[in-house]
Amino acid sequence: MTVGAQLSVTDLRRAARHPVDYPVIAETHDQGDLQMHICNISAHGFMIDNAGELGRGSRVIIRLPVVGRIEAYVIWTRDERAGFQFERIIRLDDFMMMIDTLQPNPRLRRSR
């Protein structure tokens, strides 16, 4: 019996990533609540720069502005960074409203 998420990952690395500086509390099954720092985000997932003990396949639940609670799985880890894939894609209109909230400086936002 395997442990962790069984993910079939397509190549989503080309998805537009938006730089953010967003601390969040993640709920995990094994480790309880964890402080995480999201440093970039896309409609498909996000990256943190303080992964600690998280490993590939670990599941977390986070709360994002506009989107609310959403589940994500660790796809990769390297040093202190980890990349997550959302369990569902965020709708474009919700994603753009969320970016407006997370990136108050319009110069950091990608052109639309």
The oligomeric state is: single chain
What order do the helices and strands follow?
EEEEEEH
Largest sheet: 6 strands, antiparallel, barrel
Envelope shape: globular
What would the CATH topology be? Thrombin, subunit H
Overall SS class: mainly beta
Segments where pLDDT lies below 50 for 5+ residues? none
Largest sheet, order of strands side by side? Answer: 1-2-3-6-5-4
CATH superfamily placement: predicted glycosyltransferase like domains
The name of the CATH architecture is Beta Barrel
Rounded to the nearest angstrom, the distance between the terminal CA atoms is 45 Å
- Secondary structure tally: strands: 6
How many structural domains in the coordinates?
Answer: 1
What is the number of helical segments per DSSP (H or I, 4+ residues)?
Answer: 1
As a percent range, the share of helical residues equals under 10%
Radius of gyration: 14 Å
Approximate strand percentage:
35-45%
Name the average pLDDT: 84
Task: Describe the structure in your own words.
The protein has 112 residues and is mainly β. The chain is built from 1 helix and 6 strands. The chain has a 6-stranded antiparallel beta barrel. Strand 5 (68-78) and strand 6 (81-86) form a beta hairpin.
